[in-house]
Structure formats: structure tokens, C-alpha cells
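Researcher: I'm preparing a figure for a lab meeting and need a structural model of a single chain. I don't have an experimental structure, so a prediction will have to do for now. The sequence is pasted below. Please return the structure as C-alpha cells so I can convert it later.
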Amino acid sequence: MPESIQPDTSAILVCAGNASRMGGVNKILMPLKESTVIGTCMTAFQNSPDIAEMIIVTKPENFQPIRQIAETLHISKLSHFTEGGCTRQESVMQGLKLVSKNSEYIAVHDGARPLVKPEHIAKVIRDARVFGGATLGVPVKDTIKTVDDGLITDTPPRSSLWMTQTPQVFRKRLYFEAVDFALEHQLDFTDDCQLVEAVGGKICMTQGDYTNIKITTPEDQKIAEVLLS
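Model: Understood. Here is the structure written out cell by cell.
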């Protein structure tokens, strides 16, 4: 019989945004079919054999509602809550402080991406084991233009362009090295891959699918419900 998978990855679910494009609505607690946005997200990581624990970074007023959702859904891998920082990078760093010493890998995921599939979580972790870092993503479908002062300046070849998604997974030692570098040089990145790239890390682009959308506007919730159906 094949060896059973030993969970060795800590998932940091980042849910600390201000929901400015949602008109102030708390998007992670929004209903989504029979559950909520964060409930659907937690369920995907609960059902991923590689995941040892989940750490949720969010506002303190969300701790108890999310805890109740987790109990209803029998989420056993939720280990910690912590308050986010002023930027995404600061929020992830708050989560890093609570990562188990036994974990070998860190998976950073947007809590507003509830439709991520367990099989894609497994796939991106598998690639991170080989390369040290990997992120889910999909090829762009549209022609992309670079624009300066309202005028097109370039048309990058579409064949080399991908939309980056999450989770983004890294060997723990490599990720902590990148965080130390950023703190030392007072750098702040909006993307975790960019953070690791700054210390020479090579990141694999793991192909996911187009349903792994991020809920940022009210229309996205409706699209997510259709996709779930």
C-alpha cells in the first residue's frame, strides 16, 4: 500500500482586507450556497491531506463568527486566529508567528478565494516540494497592453502571461529568509512570490483553473454561486 501523506503544510488564510470594493460588506462572512465565503474556503483546506493546520488572519470582530462557522462545518484543522497588519505582507507576517515548528511548508491563501479545489492545493504543494516555491495560476485569455498616460506603449506576448492566484506555497526556511530580507531592507510586497523572488527563489507556476476567482465585488459573489452550482 502507498504511504499515507503526512500533513506538513501550514495554511495562512488572509482575510484582513477592508472590503472597500464591496461597499463595506464583510465579504468573508457573506453567504455562499449552503455555507459562507470563509466556510467554503476552510472546507477546501480541511479536505487537503497535506494541510496540517489553518491560521486565519482577520479583524478581531471576525474571530468568533468564523469560529462558529468552523464548528458547524466540523473544521478540525483551524489552529489560530490573529489580527492583520496595515498591508498584506504585514498580515501574512502576523500569521507566520503562529506557524507550527513541525511544518515544512507555508501555504498563503486569500480567504476571499473560496472556490479553490483540494486537488489544486495538493498539486501546488507537490510542485513546491520540487522547486521550493509554487503558485497556482492560469494563462491570460485576453491581449494585455501596457499603457502610459493613456497611450499604449507595448503589447507583451500573451503566451508568456499568466494570472497569479493562491495558494502560494513555499518551503518554510526559504520563506522566512525572504521575510528577514524584506524587514532588513524595509521592503513591502503585495505578492508572496515577489517576496521570495527578491532573495533569488525560483517559483513554479502551477496551472489551476479559472474558477478559483477572488471575491472583490458584489457581482463576484453571484458568479461564485453559479460556479458552485
